Amino acid sequence: MLQPRIPVNPLPPSHTIPLTGIEPVTTPAPAVAPAPAPVPATPSRASIQLTPGSAVALAAGGGAVVLVVGAVLVSMLLAVAITGVSIAVVAVVLRLLVRDMQKGR
Fold first, then answer.
1. 45 domain-assigned
2. Looking at the 3D structure of the chain, how many domains does it have?
3. What is the pTM of this model?
4. Contacts from 54-63 at CB under 8 Å and sequence distance 24+?
5. What is the C-alpha separation between 37 and 8, in angstroms, rounded?
6. Domain that holds residue 90
7. C-alpha to C-alpha distance for 103 and 105, rounded to whole angstroms
8. Per-residue pLDDT in tens (0 to 9) along the chain, 105 residues
9. Which residues contact 64 (CB under 8 A, 6 or more apart)?
10. Could you give the dihedral angle defined by the CA atoms of residues 13, 17, 18 and 22, in that order, rounded to the nearest 10 degrees?
11. How far is 55 from 67, CA to CA, in rounded Å?
């Protein structure tokens, strides 16, 4: 299912990067070229790409996703409740002001 990818060294083994002020040390190249790494068989079904976020969610057994979705839903519910209470308070104040204006006539 998930297979790790081994990075390929872009520089040959005999090549070294010289450092300033230090004499470079070179290693002899191997006489026999190493055998190529086996190519993994391509799966018949589509593979799933994991992002860091989904990997954390999978590692936590989905608990992290449930907590994040729950926090978002609770904050949205709280925002709607606060908005509703604010509109109700404004409506009551406007009603009282209109009633006072009509009594003053």
1. no
2. 1
3. 0.39
4. none
5. 10
6. 76-105
7. 5
8. 677 777 676 666 666 665 566 665 666 666 666 677 777 666 566 566 666 666 655 665 667 777 888 899 999 999 999 999 999 999 999 999 999 988 876
9. 56, 57
10. -70
11. 15
